[in-house]
Amino acid sequence: MTKHLISLAAMLALAAPLAAQEEPQGAPSPNEIVAKADAKEWIAIPAEDLLVMTLAPAADGSARKVVIQLMPAPFSQGWVENIRTLARAKWYDSIAVNRVQDNYVVQWGDPNYDNPESEGAAKPLPDGLKVMDESAYVEQQVSKADIDRYAIMHPPGSMQDNYAPTTYFDRGWPLASDLENAWPVHCYGMVGVGRNYSPDTGSGAELYTVIGHAPRHLDRNIALVGRIVEGMEHLSSLPRGTGALGFYSEAEAGLRTPILSVRVAADLPEGERPRFEYLDTGTGRFAVEKPGQASRDDSAWFETSFARYAEARANRRDPFFIVPAGGADICNIPIPIRRAGE
Amino acid sequence: MTKHLISLAAMLALAAPLAAQEEPQGAPSPNEIVAKADAKEWIAIPAEDLLVMTLAPAADGSARKVVIQLMPAPFSQGWVENIRTLARAKWYDSIAVNRVQDNYVVQWGDPNYDNPESEGAAKPLPDGLKVMDESAYVEQQVSKADIDRYAIMHPPGSMQDNYAPTTYFDRGWPLASDLENAWPVHCYGMVGVGRNYSPDTGSGAELYTVIGHAPRHLDRNIALVGRIVEGMEHLSSLPRGTGALGFYSEAEAGLRTPILSVRVAADLPEGERPRFEYLDTGTGRFAVEKPGQASRDDSAWFETSFARYAEARANRRDPFFIVPAGGADICNIPIPIRRAGE
């Protein structure tokens, strides 16, 4: 701090960054609500559900690790099991990031697979991978009791969604539902399984993550298997490919980022295992108001920190804001995740 | 093409990239609809509304140009005029990209402004900049007749929005409205004016663009003034800052991308002026169905290519898809923009 703060008066007519140094008093921000959550509201993520993906070092020599959390049952478990099988067979070691399409996805896999420009042979897959058929995309059944038990509910008309009758949070994941089936949604940082035209062509060997506005039209059309919980910036900041769909052309082969290894965290020595936890989404209820309506102040709806956080995301009353939105879409309420024990 | 295509049968149980080489027959994709639009459906963007921002060359020596389209009346015109004033005063020359926050914004401005870690002095602003007060954020009045005339309308219950009573497209821009006022929305690639806590602190000297999921809670809270129409990848792929809010710390000062110049396209020699056009959004009507409903087939709603494109974004029936979504949010229907005369 080598310079004194500029007074608010002096700022008038000046350009100002979004960051500001003098924070007026006001309602807590969503992040402030999360920071005050009770320790028991944080739920540990099992080491069996975490993958550590090590990319080749950056140009400046710095290490690049990406940590992926796999989805729990009942979601996408056939593909999730394939991914553990592929990781344990070390199949992912020495593949690469082959596609970076702006405002869409980063995709990694075998650069020689299904690539008509490549001279190399595709890498054989390990035995034992499951073939998932079309029904696996659309029938990820949850019980109505689960929705009632776990979902952060909201009154009709609020948290409207263009892609499904309802959206909600269940055990730390953003979901959509028709009240019979439920399915994960394509928010920023979610990880899915690349496939070809036929729905049963996605094994888990080709994976992608979302690096732009939620492409929700992919929900139930491509399998979501997890999300990036650390190191997203190592993928989202990669140079975009200029080939069709953002694939790196053969002339750009040097841009492909090598993946050195992918390991299930449970298989690492205990001292090397990353530990993460998410803010419990499962036991509270909250209301997100309809646009233009005054905010609801019913404490029964705000039993948990996550419910208060989600409500504050939808109705920003912290000092920067002029007009609270009165709502939020599910991908604009990212689930808080942090390193555990730090 | 050095390798023959793999048959669909051979693909089973194999990993497949999202791109596929053998395309089955089916309904046209949104991009195919745009490609077939009539030449007269494309509307030229005035050179006075285009800014050419030249960044320092990339590490490999390649040029980096970003083209920004400023918003037309009646939206944000005070700030838009300030931005032309700043460009014509060459004020933006030698500023830098100072902030890259993953899944949020890239921001550029004077690295010494309002930066308590910096030893340098802030760059003085040119005379004649307007000071916009709070009302300018929330009162961007359009006539009801304009909404009826220009908007792509949709039946009640479809194209639901969590942030406003309605959303629509007007003269090539994504807007939200309470049917009295209308305002631009924070979609990927939109450009806004950084400010401090007081709403009148944003002049246009600090600008940002959205590089993640639409942060719609910022609508009406920060002024939107335009969008990136070319070169977005030069901003979205920049390394993320590790300081608060993604600002580059002083230790990371070397990561700041210098901005060499920003010019109004109309001021460039004619041969150097970029020319762009957008697909007319203004004269058609279309319906986006409610989730779960069958698709509407009422040709009166699909008079224009844009209407058919938007409907196809909401109901993907091209061969890759298993389940059409039955809807789309406004930021998942990007307005087609292309170089003119190419």
DSSP strand content of chain A: 15-25%
What is the level 1 CATH name of the largest domain in chain A? Mainly Beta
**Oligomeric state of the chains present here:** homodimer
Q: Largest interface: which pair?
A: A-B, 111 and 112 residues
Q: What's the story with the biggest beta sheet of chain A?
A: 8 strands, antiparallel, barrel
Short description:
The first copy, chain A, has 342 residues and is α+β, with helices and mostly antiparallel strands.
Overview of the structural elements:
The structure is a homodimer of 342-residue chains. By secondary structure, the first copy, chain A, is α+β, with helices and mostly antiparallel strands. The first copy, chain A, folds into two domains: 27-44 and 142-180 and 275-342, no CATH class; 46-110 and 134-139 and 185-273, Cyclophilin-like (Cyclophilin, Beta Barrel). Helix content of chain A is 14%, strand content 20%. Chain A has seven helices and 14 strands. Chain A has helices at residues 8-11, 30-35, 77-88, 135-138, 144-150, 232-236, 305-314; strands at 42-44, 50-55, 64-70, 96-101, 105-109, 166-170, 173-177, 182-184, 190-193, 207-210, 224-230, 257-264, 276-279, 337-339. In chain A, the strands form three sheets. Chain A has an eight-stranded antiparallel beta barrel with strand order 2-3-11-9-10-5-4-12. In chain A, strands 1-13-14 form a three-stranded antiparallel β-sheet, with no helix packed on it. In chain A, a hairpin with a 3-residue loop joins strand 4 and strand 5 (105-109). Chain A is globular. The first copy, chain A, starts with 7 loop residues before the first helix and ends with a strand. At the A-B interface, strand 4, strand 5 and helix 6 of A face strand 4, strand 5 and helix 6 of B.
